[in-house]
Structures are given as structure tokens and as C-alpha cells.
Amino acid sequence: MKKIAILISFAQRLVPRRGIANVVMLGIASTGIVLAAAPARAANFSFSGNLNDVNDTPSFLFVTDGISTVNIQSSSYANGGFDPILTLFDSADNFLLEREDIAPNLLDFQLNEVLPAGNYRAVVSAFANFANRPNFTNGFGDGGDFFGRTPAYEFTIQGVTQANAVAVPEPASLVGMMVAGFAAARFRRKLALGKQPKL
């Protein structure tokens, strides 16, 4: 550190102020000192919402910048919601693990795992809508049930640097069917009014 202080003082005397940074960096490199960028600080993220139906499977993506202890804890059941399942996939959508009840009488899930740096997908589903392994693209078993409880879910992800919910786009096929349906209805309405539709 003494060498660096002497180098900075020397640079201030020899070069204009705006050029000091370059000289200092050059000098630091010559001394063999490496300055590493600090990793992003881990944060906590909270999510809540409602399943559209008993077999809905919303996804949430999160990132770890280094080896991290990740905790994912739900409070859905404790607050009147359904019995939730958490399924975790890696960046290639390969199945990693599944978490269900914390204990026989505690039906929320909890994950506490050390994960390497990478991108992950967490999926929430209602019991007993389990993933069809080994990939996310294999879908889920469609065995979900709310058992008379609400479709609400809520959980937190701790120990990660980024996390966000995945938006579900409206299927193109459904949009096409709607457009075709409106066109057919308009065609029939014109016929009923005695008008010759334009082809």
C-alpha cells in the first residue's frame, strides 16, 4: 500500500488531473497488484399472487453471482392459501430439486441450499401438481387441488442478486382463434341482415 501512495503522489506532480487515473492503473499493474471487482451484494425478494387455476405453474428466475446459500420460504398455507410445492431448475431447465412441506403440520415449503453461480428457475404449483422430470419442458402432472383454500401464494427468495417473475404471454393460437371467431360472427351477422359480405 505504501508503494501505491508514493505512486499516486508522483502522478499528481507529473500529469494533469484527468490523466492521473491512467498513470496510477499502469503503475499498479507494474507492481503486480490486482484489483478485483467486488461481487454484487445478495438481496431479498418477495413475491405474491394468485394461481389462475389448480394446475397453474408460475415461474420465477433468480441469479447467484457466486457460491451462495439460497433460502426460499413460502407463507402461502399459513396465510390461508393452498398447499404449495417448489420445484427448482437450472439454467438449461434441468430438474434440480423439489421442496414441499416443512413438517407434517407445516405445509409451506422451505429451501435452504448452497448453489453455485448461475441462473435458476423456481416454479410454484399446488399440491399434488408435481413436475414431470427431467426437464421443465416436460411440464407438470396437472394433479393440483386447492382443497377448499384460496389460490393465493407468497414467498421470499433470499441470498440471490437478482430475481423476477416470468410474464406469461398470451398464446398465439388462442389469439388466432379469437380473431377467427370475431370474423365468423361478423360474417353471419351480415347474412342475417341480408347483406352480401365482401369476399
How would you characterize this protein structure?
The protein is of the alpha+beta class and 199 residues long. It has three domains: 2-31, no CATH class; 43-165, Jelly Rolls; 172-199. The chain is built from three helices and nine strands; from the N terminus they run ααβββββββββα. It has helices at 2-14, 20-31, 172-192, and strands at residues 43-50, 59-64, 68-74, 84-89, 95-99, 110-115, 118-126, 152-160, 162-165. A five-stranded antiparallel sheet has the order 5-4-7-2-9, with no helix packed on it. It has a four-stranded antiparallel sheet with strand order 1-8-3-6, with no helix packed on it. A hairpin with a 5-residue loop joins β4 (84-89) and β5. α1 (2-14) packs antiparallel against α2 (20-31). The radius of gyration is 28 Å and the shape is globular. The termini are far apart.
CATH class designation of the largest domain: Mainly Beta
CATH architecture grouping of the largest domain: Sandwich
CATH topology of the largest domain: Jelly Rolls
Q: What is the string of helix and strand elements?
A: HHEEEEEEEEEH
Taken as a percent bin, the fraction of beta residues is 25-35%
User: What's the mean pLDDT score?
Assistant: 78
**Anisotropy-based shape:** globular
Distance between the termini: 83 Å
